[in-house]
Design a protein that fits this description.
By secondary structure, the chain is of the alpha+beta class. The protein contains 15 helices and 21 strands. Helix 9 packs antiparallel against helix 10, helix 13 crosses helix 15 and helix 14 packs across helix 15.
């Protein structure tokens, strides 16, 4: 049975419309739809439901499938903007919602599924709504309900939440790449189905229930053959886009496929690496092609983007953008570690179960181990230092193509000096004028150039003298400002 058909039948089986469920025949007024999305998200939160539903094509009294003429993807919001982006823009905080269209016995059914909010009432166009019984009301008129939303405890951790439920053993084995699961974890493949299911459940990939099996988010996001089979996780697919130049005006290629993070990781990294510009070098009289960025750096930064993303941020997943002279790796969520401490800080992860499993599969390290290796390899390539950017809703790592020292700006020089100083500190050593010259490829006779960078980094408060009493300039030793 189709997953959508099963969902429709399950919701039709409800004895009546509820605060988190609304049936309609036809109504394509975008303003009213936006108000319902706000009301249903808030009501789902109060009802301890993961989603609210607005369904067109179902009679609200008999729950019979009657069909609808409403075509959401042909409907416009105000100003001729498409209805879906218009609705998403006016919902605050931004909530993830999906629109599904299904032909139920030749009758069109349209489903809006919106995530339940947590801790913050959802507003549409500045006003919060809520369902009271079967009616949409202003949330401001129901102070006790609004207070309950603000006090709601966080939901089940992402990894333990259910991605698909009521699955037969055949269903889940078709949707999950279970041979890769056993291979990546170095487990022998059991000889029978019950052994396979037992191990998958032991690792929290699936959960047995009274009516079959549920596939957890952990199982789906790591081992899905195709994440499109899991509607709630579609927008968490890693997107890789290649651009013609240094702007976003001319995208020329996007990575196909949508495998789970673990089963698709190696092919993901290989595909990214194959898209990178390359330089030809002469080594031992042979022409050797060298890609613009070290593969180990790409691997570590992409793995970290996957592991440390904030899955509660709706409608966004990890993103890799390859430009002519830079590469940007972005994940949803503000980091738990200050960017200046990415290289050395003790590991902290908001998705510890996911991180732990990926470490066991040798796919990744964590902040403070993999990052130092990535930055070290960037130094070997004598590339500009990567830039770590943290905003409220995203974290971004920017890698830069090769640039002569003379073409680096002051921020580039100071950032490279600071990161080099950290690497020396982690090696239980110190940065000196000599080590910095090696980092930048500066000739020994041009040591004043390195001295100038050190002075700039001192003035910026990024480094400090290891021994403030030291008087000898060229041999002075430096450590990070927090060392």
């Amino acid at each position: 049975m189709s997953t959508l058909r099963h969902l429709i039948d399950t919701l039709r089986a409800e004895t009546r419309e509820s605060e988190w469920l609304e049936f309609k025949r036809n109504n394509d007024h975008p303003q009213l739809i936006g108000e319902y999305l706000s009301a249903l998200s808030n009501a789902a939160c109060l009802s301890d439901k993961s989603h609210g539903y607005l369904i067109y094509g179902i009679d609200d009294e008999t729950h019979d499938v009657v069909g609808t003429t409403f075509k959401p993807h042909d409907t416009k919001g105000k100003g001729n903007e498409g209805m879906e982006p218009w609705l998403a823009r006016l919902l605050s905080p931004r909530m993830d919602f999906h629109i599904f269209e299904y032909d139920y016995d030749e009758k069109r059914v349209v489903i809006f599924r919106i995530d339940a909010t947590v801790n913050t009432p959802v507003k549409f166009s500045g006003t919060a709504y809520v369902r009271v019984g079967e009616h949409k009301k202003l949330l401001s008129d129901y102070g006790e309900k609004e207070r309950k939303i603000w006090k709601k405890t966080p939901p089940t951790p992402f990894e333990k939440a259910v991605a698909l439920q009521r699955q037969s053993s055949d269903d889940l084995l078709k949707k999950l790449d279970y041979p890769a699961f056993f291979d990546l974890l170095d487990f022998p493949l059991p000889e029978n189905r019950s052994g396979i299911l037992e191990k998958l459940e032991e690792e929290n990939v699936i959960v047995s229930t009274a009516d079959g099996y549920s596939i957890t988010n952990l199982g789906a996001i790591l081992f899905a053959k195709d994440l499109h089979d899991f509607p709630a996780l579609e927008r968490k697919i890693v997107r890789v886009v290649v651009f013609r130049d240094d702007t976003k005006l001319y995208p020329i290629k996007e990575m196909p496929g949508a495998k789970g993070y673990a089963v698709g990781f190696e092919s993901l990294i290989d595909w990214i690496y194959d898209q990178l510009p390359a330089n030809e070098l002469i080594e031992d009289a042979l022409r050797v092609e060298q890609k613009m960025y070290p593969k180990v750096a790409i691997r570590e930064f992409v793995a970290n983007a996957i592991i440390h993303q904030d899955f509660s941020i709706a409608g966004a997943g990890p993103m890799v953008e390859i430009f002519a002279t830079r590469m940007e790796i972005t994940n949803p969520g503000k980091p738990l570690v200050e960017p200046d401490r990415f290289i050395d800080h003790s590991p902290i992860s908001r998705n510890e179960t996911l991180a732990s499993l990926m470490r066991r599969m040798r796919i990744c390290e964590e902040w403070g181990s993999g990052v130092d290796r990535a930055v070290h390899n960037i130094e070997i390539f004598q590339l500009p230092a990567p830039d770590f950017i943290a905003e409220e809703r995203y974290t971004r790592v920017i890698l830069f193509s090769y640039r002569d020292f003379k073409d680096m700006g002051r921020p580039d020089r100071v950032r490279a000096c600071f990161q080099h100083c950290i690497l020396r500190w982690l090696a239980r050593d110190f940065m000196t004028n000599t080590t910095l010259r090696v980092r930048f490829g500066i000739k020994d006779s041009n040591y004043p150039m390195a001295s100038k960078v050190i002075k700039e980094a001192l003035e910026a408060g990024r480094i400090k003298l290891a021994d403030p009493e030291s008087k000898s300039g060229p041999t002075r030793k430096y450590i990070p400002s927090w060392g």
